[in-house]
Every structure is written in structure tokens, then in C-alpha cells.
């Protein structure tokens, strides 16, 4: 880190940048709850590289995925943060990041809160434009298991005009078959309520694809008795929990529209909260999971 003495007695201002490398399970370049920092088994070093492509500093990522890089007298020009699998010496020439070990890959970067998931953001290299005058403070990098077949984008779930509406996107898909929509009342134990078939050609895509899952509450009539039983089993009164019952019917109604979905889809929690996650299923039966989102009621 830059100290007051360094700032006072150097011709150029001391500059620091810090960040975290984390296990980006859903590949969205946002560190969500449950996605811990990682040093990938002690194999990650972060390097500050000057405009001449020479290493200025090389630091090992700590056990929590954190690092700090400092230049006491940065020169004019663009610097880079480059991740490697071993320590580099000051003065070494370095232009490319190493592919992470342990069957991992880069999922993107998050710079001062802005997620970036383009191809150039998945190489373990981040450019710090005009570093001596840069306002960039935090550079985080995500890594994830190579075996995951889908990178999820934004996911939202809400009740709109009597419909449970779940909108989500994928940033890329490999060998993908379908998505299973799951609901939960506690955010931990999930039950399938429907599915959406992949729109990618033969299960593969390198472009963003938008998906939507929705069902009108009118179709909940056929299973209304189940909804009341579920609520009664929790000791909740109908009049005191109209909003809660309505949310439950949205879920149950959605389930009836899909072949193979069970009617025992979701029960209302005591505070009315409902959670959604998306399960990606590839053609070989393998699965990966999105982050969990709370239904906006």
C-alpha cells in the first residue's frame, strides 16, 4: 500500500490497486453470496506490468483471494494487471496471462463494481489506462470450472399482473439441453416447477441469449385445493396471508403447464418469501446452477 512518506517524498504520486480473485460459480463476473475468494490452491500471482511490458511488482494472492499492487513512482502510460501461475521477477517481460491450473478458466473481470464478461475479459489481463492518473481502485477477477456448460447473465423474478415472470440470459452455452426452473421458500431446498428448452443451435452459442418463463394465475384453479392445504399445514390464515397465497398460486400454476412437473412444487414460507434458481442441464445429464434470486412481490 502507499504510505504517507511515499506520497510525500516521490516525484510522482504513489499508486495502488487491489482486488480479489474469486470462484465465480455462475460466471457473471459478480461476486455473489457463497462465491468465496480463492488462490486456486496457492497457484495465483498477480503482476503489475508497466508500459514497457516489464514487471514492476509480483505478489502472491492470499488464501482469501486478495492482493494489493503498488507503484511508488508510476511513469506515464498504460499499465496492466496480469495473472500468472508462478512468481515473476521485477524486470521480466510479461504480456499474457497464464491459464489457471486445476481445470479452471477466467470468467471475467469486475472493475470498481462494473462486471465485464467479454472475450478479452477472460484472459487474466486488465489494462489500467494512464495508471499514474487513474481513478481505478479495485480490480477483481473471476475464475470458474471449465466443465460448466453455461455462463448465466442477469436473472430477475417477479410477480407482474398476476404472472410469475422469470427473465434470464446466458452469455454462452456449450452442449446445453435445457434449463429447469426451481423454487424454494428458504433459499436452500429447491423443487422443480418447470423447464425451458435451450434456444442455442445444437446446444452451443457464443452470443447472449435471452430467456423468459411465465405463467398466468388463472391456470392455478385446478390445483387450488393443494394451495390451501399447503398453507393450512403451516398454520397460516387465509385472510392474513392473501398476498402470500397469491404468490404460491403463481408457482403452482406455472408447474401445471409443463409435462413431468409435480404438483407438490412449493409451499409458502411464514414470511411469504419465495426464491428461484435455474438449473442448466447439458446433453449428457450434467448440471450447473445459477445464483439464487428472491421473487419480487
Describe, in plain words, how this protein is organized in 3D.
This protein is mostly beta strands and about 300 residues long. It has 2 domains: about 5-145, Immunoglobulins (Immunoglobulin-like, Sandwich); about 150-295, Sandwich (Immunoglobulin-like). It is built from 3 helices and 17 strands. A 5-stranded mixed β-sheet has the order 4-1-9-6-7, with no helix packed on it. Strands 12, 13, 15, 16 and 17 form a 5-stranded antiparallel β-sheet that branches. The longest helix has 15 residues, at about 240-255. Mean pLDDT is about 80; it is low at about 5-10 and about 215-270.
In one word, what is the shape? elongated
Top CATH class of the largest domain: Mainly Beta
Separation of the first and last Cα atoms:
45 Å
Gyration radius, to the nearest Å? 24 Å
Spatial order of strands in the largest sheet? 4-1-9-6-7
Number of domains: 2
